[in-house]
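Quick one: structure tokens for this chain, please?
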Amino acid sequence: MKKQHKPETTRHLIRRYIFLVIGATLAATAIELFLVENTIIDGGIIGISLLLNHLTNINFGILVFVINLPFLYFGYKYIGKSFSFASLFGIIILAVIEPSLQPFPAITNEPLLATVFGGLILGAGVGIVIRVGGALDGTEILSILLTKKIPFSVGEMVMFFNIFIFGWAGFVLGWEQAMYSILTYYIASKTIDAITQGFNDTKAAIIVSDQYEEIADTINQRLGRTVTRLHGQGGFFGEEKDIIYVVIIRLEISKLKDIIYEIDPNAFTTIMDAQEARGGKFKSAIH
């Protein structure tokens, strides 16, 4: 019998759409009050819409909605209904709010300030939308679909599209404005990463040692972290090994190394980035 999945609760659904409104509003604010008045664009569909708006004077909201429609269709077909509906809602909010901000003057006419703060606010808005399961830009949807057919990653495909967009911007807006636009895109993308992946610099450590019990107990006592004990087998001699897996934050790396060195200087330790850690007691252990 097929297992029935629980539907999304009304509370969670309302929370999602509130954050979609917040994210799209932030993006619209960055576009109209920072970027448009300074002839600066972003990458992706938003960048294409801004360029076409500059060339044709067609309303940005109409452009960003119409250009995204085919990508939303493919997102609905291949990624999921919830994602597509959230994306459509976010794009509609963006398309409605951005033109309504046109009567307001630009917050700054200094290109560098517009680049930095426009990129930060735009990245925060887009990041919030992505974090709650939507998108304001169809470029990544197209990239996901194309990577199934051609041997390139999503990141490489997005970069290819944006090279074309910023090259076009150089001819249309001038190369200085294109360089400001590239900087805006870079700042926005880093802000998106911070929003979607969280601000906690989380690390995962794997420790292989014959003194695993003492190391595990000491980590629990000194760092307040619970550990997971894994069973493994050495690849060369085939001996059984007990492996410790623990998630910590960046500030605890030094303490962890001290614990391991005190107990077993010869322990094999790997520390790697963990984009996000949720569940259990992990959050409550961060002060």
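The chain has two domains: 10-197, 202-285.
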